[in-house]
Amino acid sequence: MAAPLTREQILNTTEQVLRRFGLDKTSVVDVARALGVSHGTLYRHFSSKAALKEAVAERWLHEVSAPLAIIVENAGSALEKTQLWLERLIHIKQSKALEDPELFAMYNALAEESVESIEKHINDLISQLTQIVEEGMQAGEFQNADAREVASAVFYATARFHHPALAKEWISPAINHEFEQVWNLLVSGLLIRK
Amino acid sequence: MAAPLTREQILNTTEQVLRRFGLDKTSVVDVARALGVSHGTLYRHFSSKAALKEAVAERWLHEVSAPLAIIVENAGSALEKTQLWLERLIHIKQSKALEDPELFAMYNALAEESVESIEKHINDLISQLTQIVEEGMQAGEFQNADAREVASAVFYATARFHHPALAKEWISPAINHEFEQVWNLLVSGLLIRK
DNA sequence: CAAATGACAAATATTTATTTTTGTCATTTG
DNA sequence: CAAATGACAAAAATAAATATTTGTCATTTG
Fold this sequence. Notes:
Arc Repressor Mutant, subunit A, 10 helices, about 75% helix, DNA-binding
């Protein structure tokens, strides 16, 4: 037992086991066995199975929001950045859903169990978008208004394209074209009228 | 047995039984018993239990689309009519979901089983909206474009507020304000720039 | 003595046995 | 003879019996 068991190790292994066995068939004993420890040990690191699953969910949600944070810091006009940010968000979600629908469904079910983690995640995303919108307003590019409310409106108006509850409908080949149409409509609402 | 059994009677009774017993607990025998006939008789009117449920689902979906069809024929500007139509659609869905969440969930599960009925329903709704948008374009009120594509974009941009898969989120008291914000954004995209 | 173990009870989940339901059709009814 | 019936087999759902899992904690290990 030279190596002390770390939180990271546990989460990595839990993810592996979840991917192998699925959300329903994964027990704490399975995870402990994969780590080569007794299941009692896991309870010294996480207070419950729910807490363990929540930690995995949070890590997964962070994998979505982290690459988007980079776009906020990008160069470019606010309009370009807003479009890029939305397209990136939509691409991340839709490609995950398309590549491995079962795994995507599993992570969403996992996240669904941690309502607070999701709320924080949505809040993170809208905050990122708010920063871009604020920039656009300060630069005189976007119409002046409450930046967070505008960002929320843009986020919710595009929900069809990134909300996991609507993933079933992303198989339609028209989906990209539909996003373009919605985006066209939104652009006029954002920009200053000339 | 003086009265001949009609399709309407069967559907009325099926709805009653579904409301009483729920989607999972309702059997063809239950419906037959409520009608005072043998279950074999029902198979002379509907080819399967699925066909019976589909007919109920279609009737329910029609109750949503029918009152909206009236708005299309209303007087008023295209913008007013578009707003009224959306607000009415959203109100119908959200009030049903709020008043009796279980019944709402049941009818949605029922409809979910009949993919084609749903597709037809969505198509109906977008066709209604297309008619209003077309009017707006012909009257020089809306920017000229493919009316159906614009109508689809408006419909999908407001999905958060009427798509039954997102009903869980309608409990938020902010939901009406969020719709207003999205609507504000869309208005600029619809109207001719002055 | 900090970290891990494993025996244990209560809560969950799975399997198996039993019952109900669906859909058909030869027969009955008015 | 059109409409309805009800006995029946196959499929599906439910309930009962069995096994696993979760979470605790007194004990062990290095």
